[in-house]
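User: Modeling request: complex.
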Amino acid sequence: MRRPRLSLREQPLPGGQPLAFAIGLLIALIVGTLLLLGAGHEPLKIYSRMFEASLGDPDAWAVTINRAIPLGLAGLAVAVAGSMGLWNIGAEGQIMAGAIAAAWVARIGDDWPSVVLITMMLIAALGGGGVLAIGPALARAKLGVNEIITTLMLNEVAIRLVQWLIHGPWKDPDSYNFPLAPMLPDQARLPTVFSRAHFGLFIAAAVIIMASVAVRYTAWGYELRIAGSSEATARYSGISLSKKILTVLVLSGAIAGLAGGVELTGTADRLTETLSNGFGFAGIIVAALALMRPSGVAVVALLFGAVQIGGQSIQTLGVSSSVSTILQAFVLFGAIGAGVFSRYRVLLDGESQSASKEVKQ
Amino acid sequence: MTQTPFSTSVPHLAVGLSNIWKSFPGVIANAGVELRVESGTIHALLGEKGAGKSTLMNVLAGVYRPDQGDLKIHGHSHQFRNPSDALAAGIGMVHQEFRLIPSFSVAENVVLGSASSVLRTRQVQSEVSEIAERFGLKVDPSQPLWQLSMGERQKVEILKILWRDAQVLILDEPTTVLTPSEVDELGEILRKMADDGRSIIFISHKLHEVSGICDEATVLRQGKTVASSLSMESTDQSELAQLMVGTSASVATRPEPVTPGPPLLELRGLTALGDRGLEAFSNLTFQVNSAEIVGIAGVAGNGQRELADVIAGLRPSTAGSLLMGGAEITSASPQLRFKSGLAYIPADRLGVGLAPRLSITDNAILRVYRQQRRGPFILAERALSYCKDIVNRFGVRSGDLDGPIAALSGGNLQRLLVGRELDGQPSVVVASQPTRGLDVQGVKAIQELLIEQRNSGAAVIMISEDLDELLAIADRLLVMEGGVIRGEFDPRTASRHEVGMAMLSDGQVASQA
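Assistant: Request completed. Predicted assembly structure:
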C-alpha cells in the first residue's frame, strides 16, 4: 500500500507566505463560523461588523493604523534580532522601558516647545529600550547565555518598575490617591494625520524603511544576514560575532523602546501599567509571519491590527471577547501552519525526492 | 505483520535489509543498501563519514522511514513507524549522543520512557543488576548518572536496550567516547551478548578497533554496499581500508613535475584540541612549498578536519607555531590570514564556506564585500558584476543570481566556493575534501583548478579521503592517523597497499599495548 508522507522541499514554495496568510484567514473564518453559529450568532453580520470597524471607512482605518504602529515597531524589533537568528522576547518590557524614559523627559521638559519635547521623548524612548536590552545582549555576546530567557525575564522587571513609579514617586498628587501618573502636557502629544491616526504612522514607516534598507543593502546588514544564516560562515569570513550580537540586540531593544515612546505620545494620556498592552508579544507573531524580514513587518502589522480591532468591535454585538481572541488565534494558527506546509511536498511511499541532481555516486 | 514464504529458509538471519533507499534534500544517503546480520554475531558496519552508515541504522531502528526497501527481522517483514515499533521487534540502538538524564539514577534512566506508570524502583534495580551481572556491565543501578564516566554511561545505554529485551543491538561509533581499556572491556561485553544469541551491529570508521571485536563486516561507500558480510578473520585489513576509501572514476591528469619553490606554509610542532576537548592532533611539523600539492591522506576523524580549521584560524592551536611566507600567523584572525594570501575551502561547504539562506551574489562577495562599499552601503551593481565574473570564469551553472544558493547543485556550489577563494591569487590554498560528493566533471574541474594554482606557484594542501585522487595529483603525500603523520610518500612511486597500511599503523600499536 502506498502511504502519503511529507518530504521537505529544497526551497520553500514561491509566494508561499502571502498564500499562507490567506489560508490562515480562511481557516479562521471557517472555525469562526462554526463557533459563532454554536454560540447562536449570525456569522455574516458579525464578519461585516468586523470589517466595517477595522477597514470600513477612514475613521476605522485610523483606529487600525494606530494599532498597527506599535505592532509594527515591536515586530520590527523582533525581526531585526531575528535576521541574525536571535530571539528578543523582551519587546514587551522594552516598550515599557521606552515609555518610562519618554515619560521622564515629559516631566522635566514640560515647558519645552512641542517639537523639541517630543523629539527628546522619542530619543529617550530609544535609549530606555536599548538599556533594558544591554544586560541580555552582553550575557549572550560574552558568555553565550540564552537571550530568550534573559529578555523574557526582564519584561517582568520593566512592568514592576512602571507599577512602582505610578504607585510611588510619579503618582499624580491630584489623582485622589488613585495610582495614576500625571497626564502628559498637551505639547507632549503627537499631532494627528487624519481622523484619529497620529503622526506615529510616519515615524513607524520611516523606521521600518530605514531598518529594511540597512539589513538589505548595507555591509552591516550583510554581516547580520551571514551570521543569521550560519555562525560558522560568519566566523570563517572574519565577522566578529560577539560585537554583532551586542549591537543587534541593543538595537532591537531600542526599536521596541521607540514603540513605547510613540504609544505614550501618540495614544496614551499618561504612563500606565497596561501601556504595553501585549504589543511586545504580538510583535513576535508579527515578525514570525513576516518571516523575520523587516520589510514584511508593515503589511503584517496592518493586517494583524485590523484583525485585533475587528475582534474587539464585535463585543458590542454581544459576542464574548474570548471569541474574538479565539478568532485571532486561528488566523495565526492557520497562517503559521500553512507556512510550514508550504515548505513540504506530499510524496507517496516508494516515490523519492528529485534531489538526485548530484547523486553521491 | 506478514510472513513472507521464504523466511524460514534462513532461520538464523537476524536482520535482512535489502535495497534500502533514503534521501534527504540534496543528498541520497542510502542508494539500494544491502545488509545481512546473523544471530549470535558481532557485525561491523564500516564506511567513511557520510557513507550512509548512521542513516541505514536509523532506518533499522525506526528513526527514519526508508523511501523504499525491504526490512526483515528474524525472517519477518516489518515497517517501523517509530523507534518503539523497532524496539518491540527487538531492535535497540545506542546513539552517539547519549539520551540520559544526569539527575536520575542508573535504574531510573534504564526504565525511562517505558510504559509502566508506577516506578517499582527495587524491582527495576534488581532486574538491572541481574542483566548487568550476566553481561559484565559493571554499574551500580542506584548511582546517580552524573557521577558516571562516559564509558559507564554507555553501559547504561546498553542496559536500557537489554532491559527491553532487544535481540539486535546497534552501536553507533561506540568507541569514540572510550579509553583504550574501556574499548577492550566493551569487546568482552559484546562477545557475551553474542554468545547469548543476540546480534550486534557495530558502526565504525576505525578499522583496527573492529578487527579485534567483530566477526563479519559490511562496507558502505557513498550510500551503497561495496562489500557484504566479509569474514573478519579471512579478510586483510588493508583490503578493507581500500574498500572504505574507494576508487574514483575519473581524475585530472597528473601535473608535470616541477621543482618546488621556497616553503610558503610551515607547521612547527602544532597541536590542537578537538570538539570534545581531547587532542585532535599533536606536534605536527611539516612544510608546504611553493608550486607543490601536499596531499593529506587518512581515514576521516584522525585530525584532518581540525588541522584545516587551525590553519584557517577557525580553531585555536594549543602549542607550536604556524608560519606563512616566513611570517608568524599562529594567532592571526581568519580575516588577516585571508588578506595575507590564505584561501580555505572547507569540507562543510554549505554551513562554513557558504551561508545557505543567502543569495548566490551574497555568497560570492563574502571575501570582498568590505571593498565594495560606498559609505555603509554595499554597491549592488559591483557585487553583481563580481558574482557574474566568478560564475563565468569558474563555470558555475546557475539561474537567478539573486536566488538562494541552496538551489545550486553540489558541483556548482563547490565551483562558486572554490572560485571565490581562488580569485584573489592566494599563495597558500587549504582544500578540505574539495571533491567529495561531486560528479565526475565536478571532481575533474576542481582538481584542475588546484593544479593550476600549484603551477602558478601556490602552496596547496589537499585533504582527501580519496586515496586515488591524492596519488594522482599530489606531489607529496602525508598520511595522518591518530593525530600524527604516520608516513610520507612520493605518490609517483608509492603503492596503494603501502599507503593503506600507514593509515592503520596505530591499530597495530594499540593492539600490542
